[in-house]
C-alpha cells in the first residue's frame, strides 16, 4: 500500500524544544490535526543517559542551524562589499547569533585589521581576500610590544584555540560556571549591555578560592575558551628580575601590553604567592615595590574605567592575601568539594570513553568517595584503569613453560636434529665424481 508521509512542525521557540516534546497531549483546537486520521507523538526518551544524548543532539542541531545562518549573513555582507573570505565554511561562530548589523561590524573590523597588519594584502580580480584566521602571529605580537619589557609577555599570551577545554568538560560547579558566565563571558561578548550607568560596569577582579584539586585552574582554562578573548597567564617568576627596578617596569609593561589586547583576562595562579600580605618579616623590598606597582596599575589613580582588563586569581589560601588585593577582588567565588550528585557528573565525564559493565553503579561509587575532589576522582579512575593491566602482567608471570628446557625428551630431540635434521651439524655428501 502506497501512501504519502507528511511531517508537520509547529513554530515553537527553539529553547523550548525539549520541553515541548515532553507534552504528550495534543491540542484539539489545532485545525491541522483534523486533516489526519493517525497522529504519532514523538517524545524524548525517559532514561537519563538516553535523554542526555537526545539533548546533546538537539543542541548540536541548534548549533548547526545557527552556524549556517551566521555564515550566510557573513557571505551576504562580503558580497555586498566585494570581499571574499578564504575558508569561510570553516569559520567558528559558536556562541553568537549574527544579524546583518553585527555581520557588517565584524567584516568592517576584519578588513581594517587585516589592512593594518598585513604588509601585502591578497587581491584577486579586484577583490580583497580576507583570511579566516587572524594574521596576528608572533612577529605581529612583537610589533605591538613597544619595548623589551612588553616583549616578555608575548609567550604568556594563550590563544583560546590552544587550550581545548570547555565548560562542558567540567562535570560539576554549575553555580560557579553560571557566575562566570554573568561576570566575564557576557560583558566580553555583549559590552553594549554594560556601557550605561555605573552599577553595570564590568567587574575588574574575580577570585577563585577553595581546596586543592577542585578545578580552579581548569575553570580558568575553560573560561579562556568560552570567552574567546585574549588570555595572559602569569606567575611570580614572570614579574621578577635580578636587576633592581625591573620588577616594577615589568609590572607596568604587563598592563600597558594588556591594554593593547583589550578585552583581555590576566590569570594569576596561586595569587597569594604574588600578592600576599605586605609587612612580613621576610618580605623583600623589591617584592613590596612590585606589589605596589601591580595594584596601582590594576586599580589606581591612572586607571581608566573603560579599560577592559580583568584580573582572575586562583588560590588555596585566600587568608594570605593582602587587604588591598581583596578589595580589588570584589567577586570571590568559593569552589567547594563536589557533593554526591556532582561526583556522579564528574565520574560520568571521566569514564565516558571507557569500557564499563552494563550495570555499573555511578551512585554507589559517588557515595563511597565522600570528601574526594575532582582531581582525586580522576586519580582514582586512572588507578582503576591500571588494574587490568597489572592483573594481566601478574597472570603472565604465573603461566610457566609447558616443556622444561633440560627435559630428557628435549635432549633426545636435539640429538636427533644433529644427526638427521636440516638444522643439524652433519656434513652433507658432495655430489659428483670428486678429485
TrEMBL record:
It is found in: Mitochondrion outer membrane. Gene3D superfamilies: 1.10.8.60, P-loop containing nucleotide triphosphate hydrolases (3.40.50.300). It is a single-pass membrane protein. Residues 202-339 form the AAA+ ATPase domain. PROSITE patterns: AAA (PS00674). Signal peptide: none annotated. SMART domains: AAA. GO terms for cellular component: mitochondrial outer membrane. Keywords: ATP-binding, Membrane, Mitochondrion, Mitochondrion outer membrane, Nucleotide-binding. One of its GO terms (molecular function) is ATP hydrolysis activity. Belongs to the AAA ATPase family. PANTHER family: AAA ATPASE, PUTATIVE (AFU_ORTHOLOGUE AFUA_2G12920)-RELATED, AAA ATPASE, PUTATIVE (AFU_ORTHOLOGUE AFUA_2G12920)-RELATED-RELATED. This is ATPase family AAA domain-containing protein 1-A.
Amino acid at each position: 500500500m502506497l501512501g504519502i508521509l507528511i511531517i508537520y512542525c509547529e513554530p515553537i521557540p527553539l529553547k523550548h524544544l525539549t520541553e515541548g516534546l515532553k507534552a504528550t497531549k495534543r491540542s484539539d483546537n489545532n485545525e491541522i490535526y483534523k486533516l489526519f486520521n493517525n497522529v504519532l507523538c514523538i517524545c524524548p526518551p525517559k532514561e537519563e543517559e538516553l535523554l542526555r544524548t537526545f539533548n546533546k543532539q538537539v543542541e548540536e542541531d541548534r548549533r548547526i542551524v545557527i552556524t549556517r545562518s551566521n555564515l550566510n549573513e557573513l557571505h551576504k555582507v562580503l558580497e555586498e562589499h566585494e570581499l571574499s573570505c578564504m575558508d569561510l565554511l570553516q569559520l567558528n561562530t559558536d556562541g553568537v547569533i549574527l544579524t546583518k548589523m553585527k555581520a557588517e561590524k565584524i567584516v568592517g573590523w576584519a578588513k581594517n585589521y587585516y589592512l593594518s597588519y598585513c604588509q601585502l594584502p591578497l587581491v584577486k580580480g579586484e577583490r580583497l581576500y580576507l583570511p579566516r584566521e587572524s594574521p596576528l602571529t608572533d612577529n605581529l605580537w612583537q610589533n605591538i610590544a613597544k619595548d623589551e619589557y612588553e616583549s616578555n609577555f608575548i609567550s604568556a599570551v594563550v590563544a583560546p584555540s590552544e587550550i581545548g577545554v570547555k565548560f562542558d568538560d567540567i562535570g560539576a560547579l554549575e553555580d560557579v560556571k553560571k557566575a562566570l558566565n554573568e561576570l566575564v563571558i557576557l560583558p566580553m561578548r555583549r559590552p553594549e549591555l554594560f556601557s550605561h550607568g555605573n552599577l553595570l560596569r564590568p567587574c575588574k577582579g574575580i577570585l577563585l578560592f577553595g581546596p586543592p584539586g577542585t578545578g580552579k585552574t581548569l575553570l580558568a582554562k575553560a573560561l579562556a575558551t568560552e570567552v574567546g578573548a585574549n588570555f595572559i597567564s602569569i606567575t611570580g617568576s614572570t614579574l621578577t628580575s635580578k636587576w633592581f627596578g625591573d620588577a616594577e617596569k615589568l609590572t607596568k609593561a604587563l598592563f600597558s601590553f594588556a591594554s593593547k589586547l583589550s578585552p583581555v583576562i590576566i590569570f594569576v595562579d596561586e595569587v597569594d604567592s604574588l600578592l600576599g600580605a605586605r609587612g612580613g618579616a621576610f618580605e623583600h623590598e623589591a617584592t613590596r615595590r612590585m606589589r605596589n606597582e601591580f595594584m596601582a596599575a590594576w586599580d589606581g589613580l591612572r586607571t581608566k574605567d573603560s579599560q577592559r582588563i580583568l584580573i582572575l586569581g586562583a588560590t588555596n589560601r585566600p587568608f594570605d592575601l593582602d587587604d588591598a588585593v581583596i578589595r580589588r577582588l570584589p567577586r570571590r567565588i568559593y569552589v567547594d568539594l563536589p557533593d554526591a550528585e556532582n561526583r556522579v557528573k564528574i565520574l560520568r565525564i571521566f569514564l565516558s570513553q571507557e569500557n564499563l559493565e552494563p550495570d555499573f553503579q555511578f551512585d554507589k561509587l559517588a557515595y563511597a568517595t565522600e570528601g574526594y575532589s575532582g582531581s582525586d576522582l580522576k586519580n582514582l579512575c586512572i588507578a582503576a584503569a591500571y588494574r587490568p593491566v597489572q592483573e594481566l602482567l601478574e597472570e603472565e608471570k604465573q603461566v610457566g613453560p609447558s616443556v622444561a628446557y633440560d627435559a630428557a625428551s628435549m635432549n633426545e630431540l636435539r640429538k636427533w636434529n644433529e644427526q638427521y635434521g636440516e638444522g643439524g651439524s652433519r656434513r652433507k655428501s658432495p655430489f659428483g665424481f670428486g678429485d
